[in-house]
From TrEMBL:
Matches recorded under InterPro entries: Autotransporter_pectin_lyase_C, Autotrns_rpt, Pectin_lyase_fold/virulence
Source organism: Acetobacter orientalis
Full protein name: Autotransporter domain-containing protein
Residue runs in coiled coils: none
Keyword Lipid metabolism belongs to the record: no
UniProt keywords, alphabetically: Signal
Keyword match Signal: yes
Amino acid sequence: GLTVAGGTETLSGANTYTGVTTVVQGAGLNLPGSIAGNLTTAGTTSITGGSVGGSTSNSGTLTASNATLHDLSNTAGTATLTNTTAGALTNADGATLSVSGGSATSATNAGTMSLSGGNSVSGDVTNTAGQVTLDGATVGGTLAAQGGSFTVGVNAATVGSLSGTANGKLDGTLSLSNAADTYSGILSGAGGLSVNGGSEVLSGDNSYTGATTIATGGTLQLGDGGTTGSISSSTAVHNDGQLSVKHSNDLTIAQAMDGSGSFIQAGTGTTVLTGANSYSGTTTVSAGTLQVDGNQSATTGATEVASGASLAGIGTLGGNVTLADGATLTPGGINHAVGTLTVNGNLSLGKNSIQNWDLGQVNIAGGQYNDFVDVKGNLTLGGTLNVAAVTGGPDVKNGLLDAGVYRLYAYDGKLSGALDEKLGDIPQGDNVSLGLQTSIAHQVNLVVSDGTLIYWDGGNSANHGTDGASGNGEVNGGDGVWTTLNGVGDGNWTNYNGTRNAPWDPGGFAIFNATAGTVTVSDTNKAGNVANVTIKGMQFANSDGNMYVVTGDDVYATTNTTTIRVGDGTNEGSTITADLDTVINDSQVSGGTSLVKSDAGTLLITKDQTYVGDTTISGGTLQLGNGGTEGRIDSSAAIHNDGALVIDHSDAVTLTQQIDGLGSLTQQGAGTTVLGNTNTYAGGTNITDGTLQGSTSSFGSGAIVNEGTFVLNQDQNGSLDNPLSGKGNFIKNGNALVAINHDDSQFEGKTTVSAGTLNVNGSLENSQISVVEGATLSGLGTVGATHIAQGGILAPGNADTVGALTIKGDLNMQAGSVLSGTGTGTLTGTTFTANGATYAQLLGDVVRVAGAANINGASVSFNVVQGSVLKANQAYTVLSATGGINGKYLDLLTNITKNYLFLTPQLFYTADDVDLLLIN
């Protein structure tokens, strides 16, 4: 052997001795050559291009560059390897080992170890304590994080697999090339994780924010059956392989997941997906519950739910959905959270599957109180339907469902499996029956019947069964006669599943589905017998795009509230329209009846009504008239409008009742509608045709969009606080003053002041103003081009405030019109010269015109506020026009002559001003 006990020795040859080469502390060795045996160094050793045939042990300072080593044990001190080939690397507690480039067979660390610069370790890297940094390194085996911590640098790193419990920080991406382990530590940092092959389980709650990537052939599992195992919601997930969740508790994945891979719900807990996912692989629910609350329309792969597993949610599934026997469908969410689940593909329910619904409101598809499933493809029914009553639901009493129709499914394609669907645990009251209704196309409903729900089947006897009473298993609708009494061909009504036909059951609730038609009410049947048609209410829910018309004899109310629903409980139901061309007669009800229009569709009333109660619009549109002269309601009863009220008459209609609510009002017909009360509706006012007339208190609190004629007619002063827009006509009638105090520059139509005063303190700058004889335009705001007719008055300022009225456009004052203003004794601080003399400007009313002012033959009436102190060589400007003054005023009427005998008022004209001079 060789011992270097002092100084520095250089070995440049190919030494063949096999003993130990020892470098003691304080000595040095340079090895550009080679030695055959082991190397033990406590001093300073540099191996540049050389090699060590045996193992190396370092406790001093070791530097190796482009060298060849066998095993290295860094027991203390510092070792630095650059582009060096080595065997097993061991770095002890307190020691530092830095490796850049080169290769090794394995690495074990308890101190500080850095593998960088393309370094390659063919085996495992085991960190028992201390710190390992991988920065641009490749590890063929497992990174075993048994203790301490590790860091992946910005240059990223690749390892075969990841195991252990120690935490890691990712500044770059950690890639797993052949994963096969469970890692229970926590990964943090701005870097990402990529599973390029094999299967990795993350059982810790990780917080790294870089991307999570699963390549084709790779699998990433979050959790291992417990309550931990997650990734940060800040990390994007790109999945071309398989992402699996295995938790016993709830886990929410909020970020969007894309790629061509698949997703598996494998744990006994609930996984909630809230992101807009777009992965195209299969979604498998093999255990627990998958709750889809996000929009997964772009996730086009199939969703398969195994026996014992559940699918829930309020989101959208993009592909086909299949539930096996024993699987459960729970729209909304677990713990009885209600909601709507949408399936863009087909939905197939196993014959022994389970459906758990929460319901609380009839005739509404989804909404606040109902679970609902909307299937855009085909629907295959099967299994058992269980229902829980929603606490607080409008149609739940004492925990039991009231009678009515509860929508379960909508489907756009074909329906099958209806006979395989069974009713399970459903909370129903006494004296009601339950049924599953599939006889109406594109709907599956739960019917809780007390005998008052009757479906219109139309007058085609071929649909009534061979005996005219047994039905054909469908609800057909269409044209026909509505009568109460028996007679040949009068069995035009059926039950919910279309299996029994009969005449109308008096006092029932009429439902019009399927194909629309004209329904003629007849008090007289074919045998000549007479009986009134009595009703509890009606619903129109046809989906054929046509309109039901109910016409003929009166229908008689049986209760104090008559409900007419137009719609099918869905948003699409807003396109449904029905025409009530008959009278709701309430003569048989003590106190009369009120009408409630509900759901999202439109009800036309085209016959003058006689019911005496209030009218309530709880949803959709109620239209009075359809372009003709009929379609009125009692004007003494209030209208409660939370939808849309439309008036479409060709004649005059007066609504003297109060209109309240959150809804809107539309004047649509060519006639005139007069609102005669103080109304508080808040949804705005639209004038699309004809004339709408009222006072400033008639139009609630919303905006007015005027494309027809808008008339204010009142004898008491008021202000129009509703924003005004549109291109129609605005007419101010009545002797009172009406003020406009805000910006109505969006109104581009014509304004006519035909009586009283229009006081503009806001803006009508895009409206042409016409003031007729006897009327006045005043204010401190801005108006458009203005025409003052003979006898009309232009009065800038207000009664208690002098100032300027601005005209954006030309001013035309006809002969005989008057410019009326008021002056004060307050100086403005400016002067001007007239007739060679200097005049001090006084504060007074003035009209400022942005165009030309044509005034020939008009007059000026200008009075000074009582008590004002005036002097000679003072003046008021009463009119200015940037486009020039054309003509002169004919007369000047003023109290200055009477009250200030020492002053002579005189009008003075310049090219663009008219001034009132006070001359001594």
